[in-house]
Design a protein that fits this description.
Elements lengths: L3 H6 L5 E3 L8 H9 L4 E4 L5 H14 L4 E6 L8 H10 L1 H6 L19 H10 L3 E5 L5 H9 L3 E6 L2 H9 L4 E5 L5 E2 L14 H11 L4 E4 L5 H9 L4 E4 L13 H8 L6 E4 L7 E4 L2 H6 L12 H15 L22 H16 L7
Parallel strand pairs: 1-9, 2-3, 3-4, 4-5, 5-6, 6-8, 8-9
Antiparallel strand pairs: 7-11, 10-11
Helix pairs in contact: 2-3, 3-6, 10-14
The structure holds flavin mononucleotide (FMN).
Flavin mononucleotide binds next to strand 7 and strand 9.
Catalytic activity: 3 propionate 3-nitronate + 3 O2 + H2O = 3 3-oxopropanoate + 2 nitrate + nitrite + H2O2 + 3 H(+)
InterPro entries: Aldolase_TIM, NMO
GO biological process, one term: response to toxic substance
Length: 360
């Protein structure tokens, strides 16, 4: 049952629980790691102090390796006219929910690019793994993490991004297909997106790049794991499959949506955060459908308004403006403790693989 991912981290199973900002928790990551997979937390939406606390909390719950995820989006360039027009567009919604229209958009998260305080926290805390989403940091930061013995992962949505990851000495590529829930890790969302499926992207990367690949997007059960490993993946990364676990921070409305018929329809939208992300098709997605891509301000400025809209709606009992991230396989999500889910996935995978040992 061993793959290069298992060997690099001494894992029992090549199963990564995806980092999910706002959903994954230290409890979830620790449970997955204890069950033999790789648990993850995301500090992309955290300050360095919050990140340090979250890493310490995870470590206190788990003796094994875990992954800490950071966001590497391009530094924000302001565009006052675009931002004002964006705020104004939401005036009717704020009026409906009787909340004052925000006066401006704010940069709610700092990118990991040139983020010395966050890098210092990672150097100090030395998690076994650090993963990058939305791009990769400068070579110096990667080098410093590697000097600490940290294994690095980065999301790619195309072979070009995968090549950049390989060229910069990162250890594993997380191939994220268009099926995936949550934010697409695309480096430059303003550029043409080929929107490859996990199935195709994994094979395309494997054909041209000699670096182990972790498949992410649409894997919901053991048969899916067997399929990805058969195609040459060194591991799989599952996000949506873990959202219903009791260790998840998802709220009751999000859980109810995932368990309902609504989960069979997800949509890619940039309207919530400023970057394309796959969400259960809710009121916010419908609102976003009428908006051209070039009218949307950059991430995470847009997200500051997205969160304000969601909070205003929630206060009136409307949850359809929440970021209910989910992949195309959302209707296959199962509700059970994270460790039990890992055990179930492994049993299904063994059954599907018919005793064949993966070697990627
Ligand atoms: C609720 C949710 C939040 C996510 N947040 C992050 C994140 O903070 N960082 C990250 O690298 N990926 C994030 N992702 C994407 C996952 O890493 C992964 O690519 C995706 O979940 C795989 O597709 P699946 O949801 O079909 O399993 C998120 C996914 C979900 C469902």
């Amino acid at each position: 049952m061993t793959t290069s991912l298992c060997n690099a981290l001494n894992l029992q199973y090549p199963i990564v629980q995806a980092p999910m900002a706002g959903v994954s928790t230290p409890q979830m990551a620790a449970a997955v790691t204890a069950a033999g997979g790789l648990g993850s937390i995301s500090v992309g939406a955290s300050t360095p102090a919050q990140a340090e606390k979250m890493i310490a909390e995870t470590r206190a719950l788990s003796a094994g390796p875990f992954n800490v995820n950071v966001f590497c989006h391009q530094p924000v360039v302001r565009n006052e006219a675009l931002e004002s027009a964006w705020i104004e567009r939401f005036n009717p919604l704020f009026q409906r929910y009787q909340v004052a229209l925000p006066s401006g958009l704010t940069e709610i998260y700092q990118t990991f690019h040139q983020n010395e305080p966050m890098l210092a926290v990672l150097e100090k805390m030395r998690p076994a793994v650090v993963s990058f989403h939305f791009g990769i940091p400068p070579a110096e930061a990667i080098g410093r993490l590697k000097q600490c013995g940290i294994v690095t992962l980065a999301t790619a949505t195309s072979i070009y991004e995968a090549q950049e990851i390989a060229d910069n000495g990162i250890d594993f590529i997380v191939a994220q297909g268009i099926e995936a829930g949550g934010h697409r890790g695309i480096f430059h969302p303003e550029e043409n997106d080929q929107q490859l499926s996990t199935f195709t992207l994994l094979q395309a990367i494997r054909k041209v790049i000699d670096l182990p690949v972790i498949a992410a997007g649409g894997v919901m059960d053991g048969a899916g794991i067997a399929a990805m490993l058969t195609l040459g993946a060194a591991g799989v990364q599952l996000g949506t499959a873990f959202v219903l676990c009791p260790e998840s921070a998802a709220n009751a409305a999000y859980r109810a949506a995932l368990k309902s018929e609504a989960a069979s329809r997800t949509m890619m939208t940039s309207a919530i955060s400023g970057r394309p992300a796959r969400c259960i098709a809710n009121a916010f997605c419908a609102h976003g459908e009428q908006i051209a891509r070039h009218e949307v301000p950059v991430y995470p400025l847009t997200y500051s308004l997205g969160k304000a809209v969601a909070a205003a709606a929630r206060a009136q009992g409307e949850y359809g403006y929440d970021a209910q991230w989910a992949g195309q396989g959302a209707h296959l999500a199962r509700e059970m403790p994270a460790a039990e889910l890992v055990r179930r996935l492994v049993a299904e995978w063994q059954q599907a693989a018919g005793g064949v040992t993966p070697v990627a």
